[in-house]
Write the structure tokens for this entry.
Amino acid sequence: MEPQRSDEALMLAYQAGDAAAFEELYGRWRGRLFRYLVHQCRSDALAQEFYQDIWLKVVGARAHYQVAAKFSTWLFRIAHNRLIDHWRGAKATEALSSYDDDEDDPPADQRPELAAPMHELPDRLLERRDLAERLAAAIADLPAAQRETFLLAEEGEMTLEEIAAATGTGRETAKSRLRYALAKLRQELKEWQ
């Protein structure tokens, strides 16, 4: 069995013409990137648009790609910049429109699982769904900078240093934002603990 190649090695292989390397890289990051975008812009339609734009930028940048940071840092930096560009060009109220998960649902393979396996009792399924909805609402209620930092840590599995690099802030700023976000989420979800 062949050892799993790093994201950076896959991107370099894609740069050299290995299309399968890109498919593997895309498979690793598509769900996390999409969930990050949905939580950030609270619109499935906008998230889909940004998602496509970001992957097109990755494809377009392959010829010039250099390993200067982890691939995830580079990918989420592209996502961060795309969101900033959007918010600069739109009114804040339009960019932060309410999230309606009944409209423009993403494909099933790109949605986070909100329910327990089917073999569990219905009351457990309902409890988990309620918790997932409460968690999504609590994340949406976080201030934008804290929400982004939390999502980069959770969805992007990034370290504080990587979050700081992706958002153009200092490590201590990222650390503070994450700490405040976690404290607010704990407070909001204390009844579930």
